Amino acid sequence: MKLFTLKETRIWGLASIIVILLAIIGTMLWQKYSDENVIAKLHGSKKITREITSPGGFGKWRGKMGFTPEQETALKELRDDFRDVSENIFKSLRANQEQIFEEMEKDDPDIKKLNHLADETGQLYARMRKETIQHMLAIKAVTTPEQYEKMAEMMQQWMFPRQIEHGRHRQYRQQRTGAGDDCD
C-alpha cells in the first residue's frame, strides 16, 4: 500500500523545508531586531516596553501591595529613572572589565593601569550602591510604612532566597527590630 506518490512526497518535502527555513529566518530576524528600542518603537513607549520585556517585577508586586494610582505612577517613574542610571553604571562596569581583560592579555600588563581600573571598578560599585540607597529612600517616601515593609520582605525573598530559608536574615531582622528579645 503506497500512501503518497513520488511527486506528492517531493512536494511535501519541499513544503517542509520551506516552512523550516521560514522559521529559521523568522528566529534570526527576531534575534536581530528584538532589542528594547525596536520593541519600544512597535509599542510607542519605552515604559510599555519595560513592562512587556520584564514579566513579573513591578507588575507582579502591584497586585499584592495595594498601591494607589498616584503611587503606581510615582513608582513607575522612580523605577524607570533608576533603571536608566543603573544601566549607565553597568555599561561603564562592563567597559571597565573589558579594559582589565585586554590589559591582562598583554605579555607585559601595566600594573598601574590595572590598579587604576580596579579603583574605578570600586568607585562604580560604590556609585551603584549609593544610587540604590537613594532609590530605596525615594520608594520609602512614596509608600506607606506597611507597604514598604511588605515590599522589603518580598525583595529579601527574591534576592536572598537561600539565606532566608536558613534564617540568616531573620537573625538580622530580630536584632534590628528587637523581636525575639522576650524569649529568655
Order of helices and strands: HHHHHHHHH
Largest sheet: none
What class would the helix/strand composition place it in?
Answer: mainly alpha
CATH topology term of the domain at 69-143: Four Helix Bundle (Hemerythrin (Met), subunit A)
Count of individual beta strands: 0
The number of helical elements comes to 9
Could you walk me through the main structural features you see in this protein, from its secondary elements to its overall organization?
There is one protein chain. With 184 residues, this protein is mainly α. The chain has a domain at 69-143: Four Helix Bundle (Hemerythrin (Met), subunit A). It is 83% helix and 0% strand. The protein has nine helices and no strands. The chain has helices spanning 6-33, 36-43, 46-53, 57-65, 69-105, 111-142, 145-159, 161-165, 168-177. Helix 2 crosses helix 3 (46-53) and helix 5 packs antiparallel against helix 6 (111-142). The chain is flat, with a radius of gyration of 26 Å. The N and C termini lie far apart (86 Å). Mean pLDDT is 76; it is low at 46-55 and 180-184.
Top keywords for this entry?
single chain; 184 residues; mainly alpha; Four Helix Bundle (Hemerythrin (Met), subunit A); 83% helix; flat; disordered C terminus
SSE map:
Layout: H1 6-33, H2 36-43, H3 46-53, H4 57-65, H5 69-105, H6 111-142, H7 145-159, H8 161-165, H9 168-177
Helix pairs in contact: 2-3, 5-6
Brief digest:
It contains nine helices and no strands.
